[in-house]
Design goal:
- Helices cover about 35% and strands about 20% of the residues.
- By secondary structure, it is of the alpha+beta class.
- The protein has one domain (about 25-120).
- A 5-stranded antiparallel β-sheet has the order 1-5-4-3-2.
- Strand 4 and strand 5 form a beta hairpin.
- The two termini are about 40 Å apart.
- Bound molecules: zinc ion.
- The site of zinc ion has 7 residues, from loops.
Length: about 120
Amino acid sequence: MNRDRTCMECGKPLKGRVDKKFCNSECRSTYNNHLNRNTNNLMRKVNRILRKNRRVLAELNPSGKTKVHKRQLQQKKFDFSYFTNVYRTKNGNVYYFCYDQGYLPLEKDFYALVERQDYVY
Ligand SMILES: [Zn+2]
């Protein structure tokens, strides 16, 4: 909570109700707009990375099933930190997906690239 009792937007001391967070509705909406803008920017950024990752996988995997070296993904600026979902097979293999394009880490920095199969969802 706002322990020092100042407006969360402009920082002016607050008077009145203890649960008040803003001096007026203008400060409230300014604050919320900034909050939404930051969230939207973050989501846009993440969506861009995911789409880019998906494109890289699709480009390297025109046949729907192939094997590539990590270097090939890195050259295309693939970002391993972002994926849309994970699929674990019965024998413990973990596929990482960016939408319909997925990869499975293999030995020695190789990756199997796959296209989404119906069993994924
Ligand atoms: Zn204020």
